[in-house]
Amino acid sequence: MIRTVDLVITGAGSAALAAATDALRRGQRVLAVLRSGDPRVERGFRQRLRTAANAEGSRVTVMTNAEVVCVDGVHGVEAVVIRYARTGRLCSVNASAFLSCDGPATSTRAGRPGGRGGTG
After folding, report:
1. What are the structural domains, with CATH classification, of the chain?
2. What's the number of CA atoms in the CB half-sphere (13 Å) around residue 26?
3. Residue 70, pLDDT score
4. Residues 75-115: pLDDT tens digits?
5. What DSSP designation does 13 have?
6. CA torsion angle for 3, 30, 10, 25 (degrees, to 10)?
């Protein structure tokens, strides 16, 4: 699949919903990438988007059971590569912007700015 969207968002939480709603209200095309393979999560997210943005469904695409593996571009975002978790298949999307609203998989102190790592 190669398509063009204005914004690719990962996550289904309130931050993702707010960003997607704002983009839809500005007339942009949005692709939401959700790690969950549960169809109820997809329907719920899509419904909340339509309600919040009062937007038509043709400007919103929701991919489930997938993850963003690469974001690339020269002077900004130009392409986003997505992997389907079930098959490992990759697909590329032309995009103007990318926003990750997924929380970190694990929490570590070593990665904090000014942090020393360890327990102290």
Report:
1. 2-100 (3.50.50.60)
2. 11
3. 94
4. 999 999 999 999 999 999 999 999 998 765 443 334 434 44
5. S
6. 170
